[in-house]
Design a protein that fits this description.
The chain is of the alpha/beta class. It has helices spanning 5-19, 31-44, 58-75, 85-103, 116-142, 154-159, 180-192, 215-219, 223-233, 246-262, and strands at 22-27, 49-53, 78-81, 146-148. Helix 1 packs across helix 2 (31-44), helix 2 packs across helix 7 and helix 4 crosses helix 5 (116-142). The longest helix has 27 residues, at 116-142. It is globular and about 65 Å long.
């Protein structure tokens, strides 16, 4: 739990100002991108924040991005809608064809279809390509430091609930050390101060990578349930006796397994030490 929200926000806004002049943010309508947009608006001013809505289909447009567009209008930041279905579907098709060709180079009719998870990850990577491409030319046009600001939080990052080189990629993660509960704590602070309204705070987290997806349904546990386990594994709090907390042990095992399997998403790619073989 955050002890002093104004002091925390002062620290975050100072770091953002030191790091960049202009922020490019993918706006999904979810709580994390909503909060990051609010913080960047406070740090850099509304004219230096670019929100990018990137819907895949009707659900995104009518639900998630309807919320994100209202947020952008409420904050007064610059924003643009960039549909991704054509790009993402083309990528899915090319990968499906390539996989089928690897099995049968002489096939005539494509029948293979990549998995739902793989397709969802392609959507995430498509969005990140768009953000960095926009950022590149904005930097040249504005002659300012333009950076892609990530929206990941500690609860999601610790268990690797993100896409490698998709939403796990960014130049700065201003809320990357905050638990999901703390993200909501700051969002409620901004609501109470009048910056945003309650309807802009999504309290049912979803990555939105496919129809009717929700974080809790996919993971099997809520972020509130996983948070104590993450704190224990990070050494923030002691572990109780296992025999007294069978449910907690179950969550601990799940969180630890996911963390170990997915930690590569948040580590720099290793470089082999080969200089001993060279002059």
């Amino acid at each position: 739990m955050i002890k002093n929200i104004p002091d925390l926000l002062e620290k975050i806004t100072f770091e953002i100002k030191s790091f960049t002049d202009v922020a490019v943010i993918g706006l999904s309508g979810g709580i994390d991108s909503t909060l990051v947009a609010c913080i960047c608006q406070k740090a850099l001013g509304k004219d230096n924040v670019y929100g990018v809505h990137m819907p895949y289909g009707d659900t995104d447009r009518q639900k998630f991005n309807a919320r994100s567009q209202k947020l952008a209008n409420t904050l007064g930041i610059k924003n643009v809608l960039v549909p991704i279905s054509t790009i993402s579907n083309s990528l899915d098709s090319h990968v499906s064809t390539a996989l089928q060709m690897l099995e049968n180079p002489n096939f005539k009719y494509p029948t293979y279809k990549i998995s739902t998870l793989n397709s969802g990850n392609n959507r995430s990577r498509t969005r990140m390509c768009i953000l960095y491409s926009l950022g590149h030319d904005l930097s040249s046009k504005l002659n300012k430091r333009v950076r892609v600001i990530g929206t990941g939080n500690l609860s999601e990052d610790f268990i690797g609930y993100d896409t490698k080189f998709g939403d796990s990629a960014a130049d700065l993660f201003p809320i990357g050390q905050l638990f999901k509960s703390e993200v909501y704590q700051i969002a409620d602070f901004f609501r109470d101060s009048g910056l945003i309204t309650e309807d802009l705070i999504d309290r049912n987290p979803s990555a939105g990578l496919w129809e009717n997806q929700s974080d809790e349904a996919e993971l099997g546990y809520s972020y509130n349930e996983m948070e104590p386990a993450i704190k224990m594994l990070l050494g923030f709090s002691p572990r109780p006796a296992v025999e007294n907390t069978p449910r907690l042990q179950e969550v601990l095992d799940f969180v630890a397994k996911r963390h170990n399997a997915n930690r590569h998403k948040h580590e720099a790619p290793p470089t082999l030490d080969l200089r001993n073989f060279c002059e």
